[in-house]
């Protein structure tokens, strides 16, 4: 089940968030981030945040927000995290598909991922299967914990109709 995330959900999600960020393999968030800072970043700054729950266990989450202001506010940005034990079970796909539906309902015409770590091959392949294109490469933009400096991709998908 995917639904809007609340503070209690985030507390249950915190171990997932903390592990993902401290691994320094996919997110450019401060590894020493506190629970309160993380809640603010993931749940208060975005337009909405959602949680994926199965049998009472929080297995993943995403946020959605405008990627830019003013004339660029028709493009949204999302971030996704899935618990390690739940990876490979279609949860990231479900979250991404849900986020695209929500984006359309919120009136967004496109979705852009600003910094997909190039060596995160599972995510890159999934986003491509779901219609996202790599529209840019930023050389050595991410300091990976194991691999050192690696590239990031800008990925994009138009959500509007051909008439837009």
TrEMBL record:
It holds the Pfam family Acetyltransf_1. Transmembrane segments: none annotated. InterPro entries: Acyl_CoA_acyltransferase (IPR016181), GNAT_dom (IPR000182), Mito_N-acetyltransferase (IPR052742). Keywords: Transferase. The keyword Transferase applies. The keyword Cell membrane does not apply. GO terms for molecular function: acyltransferase activity, transferring groups other than amino-acyl groups. It comes from the Bacteria. Signal peptide: none annotated. SUPFAM superfamilies: Acyl-CoA N-acyltransferases (Nat) (SSF55729). Residues 1-160 form the N-acetyltransferase domain. This is Acetyltransferase (GNAT) family protein. It comes from Oceanimonas baumannii.
């Amino acid at each position: 089940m995917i639904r809007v995330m609340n503070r209690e959900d985030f507390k249950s999600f915190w171990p997932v968030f903390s592990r993902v960020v401290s691994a320094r393999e996919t997110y450019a968030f401060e590894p020493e981030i506190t629970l309160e800072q993380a809640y603010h970043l993931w749940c208060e700054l975005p337009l909405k945040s959602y949680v994926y729950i199965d049998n009472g266990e929080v297995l993943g989450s995403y946020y959605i927000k405008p990627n830019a202001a003013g004339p660029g506010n028709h493009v949204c940005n999302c971030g996704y995290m899935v618990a390690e034990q739940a990876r490979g079970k279609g949860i990231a796909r479900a979250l991404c598909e849900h986020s695209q539906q929500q984006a359309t309902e919120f009136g967004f015409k496109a979705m852009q991922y600003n910094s997909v770590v190039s060596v995160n091959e599972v995510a890159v392949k999934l986003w491509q299967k779901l219609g996202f294109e790599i529209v840019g490469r930023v050389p050595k933009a991410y300091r990976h914990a194991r691999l050192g400096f690696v590239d990031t991709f800008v990925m994009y998908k138009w959500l509007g109709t051909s008439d837009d």
